[in-house]
Specification:
- This protein is mainly alpha-helical and about 190 residues long.
- It has a single domain, classed as Alpha-catenin/vinculin-like (Four Helix Bundle (Hemerythrin (Met), subunit A)), CATH 1.20.120.
- Helix content is about 80%, strand content about 5%.
- Strands 1-2 form a two-stranded antiparallel sheet.
- Strand 1 and strand 2 form a beta hairpin.
- Helix 1 runs antiparallel to helix 2, helix 2 runs antiparallel to helix 3 and helix 4 runs antiparallel to helix 5.
- The radius of gyration is 25 Å and the shape is elongated.
- About 25% of the residues are buried.
């Protein structure tokens, strides 16, 4: 697959995650009942805002990486920007799975929902469903980042060359595509006749 298509897919996967996190924010922050302050709800709201911030930073870095790899490609800038996007995603993923959907948080939400009545009971069900809705986009983005790294690695490998030192001196070789090699052999063979 072309690197442009891989990075376009990466950006789409980040956007899908951002949409899922927006849905979570609407439920966890905007739609929460206004009666009473609950520390658990505040903690979840703060966590959701952190997750959304990292998703936005990952989106900006992935866009920068994608732009850097357009012709003429600045592979080094693309690599650095992809590193930033990946690092923000890892922070987001660790916090999501380590805190947001960790057994303790979900158990507390479910217990709170069972002990509450009316709006809070409905809100807790919606919050747990919104958390679950973020899992799929997270896994898909994880896979898209892996594909981006693989494609970038292939791009870098195609540009590589080796330096070998021998008793005679240095020999520098660069990988040559088969079509170019045949063309060179044809020209050398023509000169020998």
């Amino acid at each position: 697959m072309a690197i442009e298509a891989v990075f376009l897919d990466l950006r789409r996967k980040i956007d899908a995650l951002r949409e899922a996190l927006q849905g979570l924010a609407l439920t966890a922050i905007e739609d929460r009942p206004r009666s009473g302050e609950v520390l658990l709800v505040e903690r979840l709201g703060n966590l959701v805002e952190d997750l959304r911030g990292w998703a936005e930073e990952a989106r900006e870095a992935a866009a920068q990486a994608s732009d850097a790899l357009q012709h003429p490609a600045d592979v080094n800038l693309g690599r650095r920007a992809l590193c930033v996007a990946n690092e923000r995603f890892i922070r987001l993923e660790y916090r999501f799975f380590g805190e947001a959907v960790a057994h303790g948080m979900v158990s507390e939400l479910l217990l709170f929902g069972r002990q509450s009545r009316g709006e809070w009971k409905i809100w807790t069900r919606g919050a747990v469903q919104a958390l679950d809705a973020c899992r799929g986009p997270l896994f898909e983005l994880d896979e898209a980042l892996l594909r981006a790294w693989q494609e970038l690695g292939e791009r870098l490998a195609a540009r590589s060359f080796t330096v070998q030192t021998s008793n005679i001196g240095q020999q520098i070789t660069a990988p040559m595509k088969r079509a170019n090699l045949q063309s060179v052999k044809g020209r050398v063979g023509d000169g020998l006749s």
